[in-house]
Design goal:
alpha/beta, binds ligand C2E, binds calcium ion, 12 helices, about 20% strand, eight-stranded mixed β-barrel
Length: about 270
């Protein structure tokens, strides 16, 4: 049985968006944000939430990012898409502050977003305009996106860090970063890919990779976050291994804003 009911509806149609469809979607404000809670393993308190974009299509309903992020990256629309996601997330964050529920937000960023100085500048202007503490914003970059050409992205990454934004390496363990690159990159958080978390109890290789990630995190002074935590036993084991943070269906699936507001108090 699928633990993600939203996804079950995806098979009913085969909507393959074109560049123009996606451009219209961005212009017509059809992109919406879902939030997946992240918790602190020690205190079991809420640590933050990852922002996951969805396309609310008037005809086809909720469309998941695997249907349009690659298209956005291929066509260059990723710049506008990320701009929209960041703007929506920051506006939401203001709303939270007013409710006295300041939550750190993790935003997914593509490789192309860090090839110019536009992103640090856009972020700087937005946090200023909305009076947000930049350390409430975590930018997630996949290991493969950033480590492939670290020398060229290092300038942008360092600028973001200097402005106090936090940086997280996503899908860690699936790319090829050298220890030297890892040492040089100014990341605050290392996200262990769900491929390892989900298999760690039955697969020795996955378990060793999880342990190495946690050790690397400690040595390089980065928080480790395990993604794809689906069961209590995996949660307990990660706690025992002293992983700092966790995210996954066991804690909560990604939620709409209203669902998140209902989820928060019972947590
Ligand atoms: P990701 O960054 O690895 O995000 C986590 C994905 O894992 C999400 O899928 C989430 O729903 C799913 N997930 C969370 N917990 C579990 C679990 O316990 N088990 C399993 N099996 N899956 C879990 P989603 O929302 O479909 O997003 C897919 C990918 O799309 C994301 O992977 C991210 O790479 C990309 N993406 C999402 N939003 C954005 C965005 O705003 N900008 C960019 N550039 N990429 C985005
Ligand atoms: Ca991510
Ligand atoms: Ca990930």
């Amino acid at each position: 049985a699928s633990s993600n009911n939203d996804k079950a509806s995806q098979g009913k149609f085969d909507f393959i968006p074109t560049e123009q469809d996606l451009r219209d979607a961005i212009d017509n404000k059809q992109l919406i944000l879902y939030y997946q809670p992240q918790i602190n393993m020690k205190t079991e308190c809420l640590h933050g939430a990852e922002v996951l974009v969805r396309w609310l299509h008037p005809e086809f309903g909720l469309i998941f990012p695997d249907k349009f992020i690659a298209l956005a990256e291929q066509t260059g629309l990723i710049e506008q898409l990320s701009e929209e996601v960041i703007h929506l997330a920051i506006k939401q964050s203001v709303h939270w502050q007013k409710l006295n529920r300041a939550t750190r937000l993790s935003i997914n960023i593509s490789a192309q977003n860090i090839t110019s100085l536009k992103l640090p500048e856009q972020l700087r202007m937005l946090v200023k305009k909305y009076e947000i503490d930049p350390s409430m914003i975590v930018l997630e970059l996949t290991e493969s996106a950033v480590m492939g050409h670290l020398t060229s992205s290092l300038d942008v990454l360092n600028r973001l860090r200097m402005k106090d934004f936090l940086l997280s390496i996503d899908d860690f363990g699936t790319g090829y970063s050298s220890l030297q690159q890892l040492y040089q990159a100014p990341f605050n958080e290392l996200k262990i890919d769900r491929a390892f978390t989900s298999k760690m109890l039955h697969d020795e290789e996955a378990m060793i990779i999880v342990k190495i990630c946690i050790m690397l995190g400690k040595m390089l002074n980065m928080k480790t976050l395990a993604e794809g935590v689906e069961t209590q036993v995996i949660m307990d084991e990660l706690q025992r291994l002293e992983c700092d943070l966790a995210q996954g269906y066991f804690i909560s699936k990604p939620l709409s804003f209203n669902q998140l507001m209902d989820w928060l108090p019972q947590y």
